[in-house]
Amino acid sequence: MTIAIIGGTGPQGQGLALRFARAGVPVVLGSRDGARASEIAAELQAKLAADAAPITGADNEGATQAAEEMVILAVPFAGHNATLEALKPHLAGKILVDIVVPLAEGDPKLVDMPPEGSATEAAQAILGADIPVIGALHNVSAVTLNTLEWDINCDILVCGNQLAARKKVMELCEKLGVTAYNAGPAQAARCVEAITPILIRTNISKAVPFSHAGIKIWAPDH
After folding, report:
1. β-bridge partners, 104
2. Which single residue of 1, 17, 63, 199 could bond 28 by disulfide (Cβ 3.0 to 4.6 Å)?
3. What is the distance between the alpha carbons of residues 65 and 87, in angstroms, rounded to a whole number?
4. Which helix (H) or strand (E) holds 182?
5. Which tens digits make up the pLDDT trace of 173-219?
6. Count of CB atoms situated within 10 Å of the CB of 159
């Protein structure tokens, strides 16, 4: 099943492309500059074994149209709404996976939530009820994703208003070797997206002996 990653030339998008292609999922990177997307796709493909799924590049519209069902949105929040407005005519029959976090301008240790409550909810408002928007993959370090010798050290919280779409996105995420949890309706994205700046604050703190930490659901041992 070919997926598209819009904003796929950024660090998060590139890391996800590597991980999904290595897991056997074909990826089309989307960018405003289709030629640049193709160049980066070739660079990423060269990092993978010969049996990996293909990574190709296209402009945003072409990548969206190439996706069989799943389109991942990985653009900076400043371009979030405009990108969705432009792609809305091409998203019919697809699921939008929104991984965008509305970090505060000038301070990534804080969020600046849109009026709808979260980026996920803003996307759903733009696209309308007929196009499922699922929030996921908000809390994964881009450095971790791009460092293929590392396991992804976190669980994935998945939220959205349509349960069937939520389950499909959970299955997609689990191809990365992670555990995905059903976090409920889109409103839960207000909590999930807000975890990212907390992780950023922790990971850059000199008071802790690590960086690139994630979150896990800790099951009781009784």
Report:
1. 107
2. 63
3. 9
4. strand 180-184
5. 999 999 999 999 999 999 999 999 999 999 888 888 888 889 999 98
6. 28
Angstrom CA distances, 49 to 19, 46, 148, stand at 12, 8, 12
Write down the pLDDT at residue 207: 86
3-state SS assignment for residue 162: coil
Q: Of 84, 163, 153, 91, which Cα lies nearest the Cα of 125? A: 84
- What is the model's pTM? 0.96
Both tokens of 115, joined, read 């009026």
138 secondary structure, DSSP code:
T
d(CA 35, CA 41): 10
The maximal CA–CA distance of the chain, rounded, in angstroms, is: 55
Quick check: 116 and 84 in contact, CB under 8 A?
no
Residue 55 burial (CB count, 10 A): 29
pLDDT above 90 for 57: yes
Quickly state the pLDDT bin for 27 (edges 50, 70, 90). very high
Alpha-carbon distance of 57 to 62, in angstroms, equals 9
CA 161 to chain CA mean position, Å? 17
Which residues partner with 4 through β-bridges?
Answer: 28, 71
* pLDDT tens readout for residues 61-115: 999 999 999 999 999 999 999 999 999 999 999 999 999 999 999 999 999 999 9
